[in-house]
Amino acid sequence: MKIGISTASLFMRLYNEDAVALLSEWGIGTTEVFLTSYSEYEPRFAQTLLKNKGDMPVNSVHVLNTQFEPQLFNEHPRVRSDAFSLLEKVLASARILGAENYTFHGLARLKSTFRENLPKAGEKLSQISSFCKERGVRLCLENVEWALYNRPAVFGTLKRYCPDLAGVLDVKQAVLSGYSYYDYLAEMGRDLAYVHVCDFDDEGKKRPAGQGNFDFEELFKRLRDTGFDGAVIIENYNEDYREIKELKDSYEYLLEKAEKIFR
Closest Cα to residue 142, out of 165, 163, 122, 162? Predict the structure, then answer.
């Protein structure tokens, strides 16, 4: 198992090219590159990241999903075609960076007119997954309170239509959804590809790992018991901490916890 830090944790602090350079300088075991704008989806930008990241492995890529992911499910041929063109660029960037995984949110539950149809979504998801697989990248659906996988049981239903689907457990999104991360973890099981984590203080505010009361040892034990051997990636937001160094401290904190459980 590896511990890593997502460049999303440095959003509004550093540009991605500087974020990967800093994480590499720190000796971080792996990263998720959070591509946040159309210009960053261009493969030529990935070449800059490749140069700056040094030997640090890239576990996965993530995008600002509402820019095109919901449109991959759209019935209008031009809308869908344009969305797949953007996805093509992201997957090309993933290959350049050596990332085997794509963190996916999919449909957004942001409008009052949204109507859930999981079988139909599953069929579309299967097409998206095949598109990714053909380009050497695994589609990994993340539990997100406002997106397609917003509660336990959704993943299992979608998996029937999309057998290659992998999962991403996001601890903070489980909290926001009102369900225990235990339920998501039990559902994903051996299909779990990697995990996003942060800590929580007594008021429920997000903090870097080691600054709150989240039981990381319990999480690691549960991961170990499922046979998990992926990456646990720190994903905090800009407002969750004061100094950038706190991210490095949280990384070292998790390394110590992981070594205790996974030795």
Answer: 165
Q: Which residue is associated with the tokens 């140069």?
A: 51
Residues 6+ positions from 213 with CB-CB distance below 8 Å: 199, 200, 201, 202
Residue 27's CB: how many other CB atoms inside 10 A? Answer: 11
Nearest residue to 91 via CA among 128, 121, 125, 123: 128
How many Å from the N-terminal Cα to the C-terminal Cα in the chain? Answer: 10
Helix 118-134 and helix 154-161, axial crossing angle in degrees, nearest 10 = 60
Binned average pLDDT, 10 residues per bin, the chain of 263 residues: 97 98 98 97 98 98 97 98 98 98 97 93 98 98 98 98 98 97 98 98 96 98 96 97 98 97 88
Q: Report yes or no: 176 and 213 within 8 Å, Cβ to Cβ.
A: no
Going by C-alpha positions, the residue among 176, 189, 173, 191 that lies closest to residue 222 is 189
Q: Are 209 and 197 in contact (CB under 8 A)?
A: yes
Question: How far from chain centre, in Å, is Cα 129?
Answer: 16
Closest to 72 in 3D by CA, of 61, 86, 60, 59: 86
The Cα 208–Cα 188 span in angstroms is 25
User: Whose CA is closest to 143, among 112, 114, 186?
Assistant: 186
pTM: 0.97
Alpha-carbon distance of 128 to 15, in angstroms, equals 29
Radius of gyration of the chain (CA): 18
225 is written with which tokens?
A: 């018991």
C-alpha–C-alpha distance, residues 197 and 243, integer Å: 18
